[in-house]
Amino acid sequence: MKATLNKQFLDEVQQENLAWRWPAYESWFARDDLYKIPGVSQGGGSAPFWWSAVPSKILNRYQSAAFIEWRYFSILSPEFHGICGFSLFNPEHHFPQFAEGGLIAIVAGALEGAVERLRNDSHHRAGEELERIQEFCFMHVFPMESVIFHGPNRQNVSASHEGVELKIDMLDMQTADIHIEMEGGISVRFRHQAVPGSPVLPPVTATDFRTVPGAHWTIFNPSPVAQVSGTMVVRPGLLQMSERAPNVHNPNFISPPLAERLYNGYVKVQLNDAAGYYEHSYGMNPMPLHGWDFLFVPSPANKSGLVLQTYRGSAQASYLEVLWQQEDMSWKTLHVPYDKCTIDWAETSWHPGLRVHVPRKRIIKASIEGFKIEITNQIFGEIPFIRAHSPVVRHFFISEEISSTSWTVTDSQGHRCVDVKDALSGGETARGRWYYNLNGIFDLSASKPF
After folding, report:
1. CB of 47 within 8 A of CB of 5?
2. Distance in angstroms (rounded) separating the CA atoms of residues 211 and 207
3. 182, 369, 418, 450: which has the fewest C-beta neighbours closer than 10 Å?
């Protein structure tokens, strides 16, 4: 007998909401009606047989441990090409022998025209970009006892742990002020705000994952086309806690060119209306079973943007969305289901650090409502996110991409509605690694892995 998620719960998670969703999930997990059997009333006895057979203490731990929520703020400019991301995972830190838990903050990216530097030297081997560009990755996990949700809708968060201070203020659905401060190490202060008039893309909730009972995921894009202003300072103290290349035992790294600059003092980056992308996503699907292929291209200057979401094992969470400002100043949005897209990893390479194949070129084509969409995404380098702090994350990777994208939208009369050339873009590939480590050594094909 198949169990489904409570309709009231699904209606709630699909609402546009600027609040952190963990407090709401926490209250649902404390109830006994998160699941129901089709045809059975929502009153007592609605839980499926497998739910009743497992002790409630274990079920509550499972639900909490499977929960993930992230706020993903991208910054795309010649001065800094990267992200400032926050992931709330396994919030109550259950099963500590296998998984970490808390709120992880990640600041990672490349400085000083990384895309142009890599574009002009296109013959490098995957992973070698660390020898030539100034890039870094900083991660810090805040235990939940150090995290405070506040604001009228619990939309803001503050945290302090081991000398690292964090503050995120959501001023509205499309505007955030973000502060991260580590004395002697790194300082980040910027405002991330949607281009005036650009639409909020409605949340998309997928329930077709075949991973664990109750697996689901909501993707919410309040600011697919945003602008970012502020400052970032990287100080020499960060060298003491970082490797010189991505290392499975220490996720923090600083590339040799940036380290050389830091030996002579701090590096300050000034951002003025850089392109940005903001996503708030959440749900239940344990990290090792997750996997995605992700691309976004915000272009504030010409009022257009696109986002490709493809999640392993879900058709509902896999789609393309494009948007642009029309001649009458209104915005047009197209939501293209996965089955109306073709996504080709036209070029790939083996990454020796990640020990997986990563894309070097994506070619995406789609047609819907008389519009024809063509996208060419060229990936010049990547920033690996790898950790060895627990078995769960040890066998999972995220490859944060440094890329540029050209794309067009043509209507049925042949009029070109969007024509973007070589725009700075971002994206990720992520999946479990234990299987791919075994077959990737022998399989050098360029096929997309899911």
Report:
1. no
2. 10
3. 369
- Helix ranges (H only) for 206-363 are 256-263
Strand partners, 166: 159, 180
Tens-digit pLDDT profile for residues 370-384: 999 999 999 999 998
CB 403 within 8 A of CB 377: yes
Is 393:287 a contact under the CB 8 Å cutoff? yes
Which tokens go with 229? 């202003």
Is 213 exposed, middle or buried, given 0-12, 13-18 or 19+ CB atoms closer than 10 A? middle
The mean per-residue pLDDT over the stretch 46-70 comes to 72
> From the CB of residue 275, how many other CB atoms can be counted at a distance below 10 Å?
25
Instruction: Take residue 350 and report the two structure tokens written for it.
Output: 């083996």
Under 8 Å between Cβ of 293 and 320:
no
Task: Name the residue type at position 74.
Answer: S
The span from the CA of 433 to the CA of 436, in Å, is 5
Q: Is the pTM of this model over 0.85?
A: yes
- Of 77, 82, 74, 143, nearest to 384 by C-alpha is 82
Tell me the three state secondary structure of residue 393: helix
For 135, what's the count of Cα atoms within 13 Å in the CB-facing half-sphere?
30
- Mean pLDDT of the 430-439 span: 58
SS3 263: helix
147 in Cβ contact with 412 (< 8 Å): no
Pick the closest to residue 377 from 339, 396, 351, 403 (CA basis). 403
CB atoms within 10 A of CB 441: 10
User: pLDDT (tens digit, 9 = 90+) per residue, 125-140?
Assistant: 555 555 678 999 999 9
CA distances (Å), origin 445, targets 126, 130, 345, 347, 430? 16, 25, 10, 10, 18
**CA gyration radius, the chain:** 22
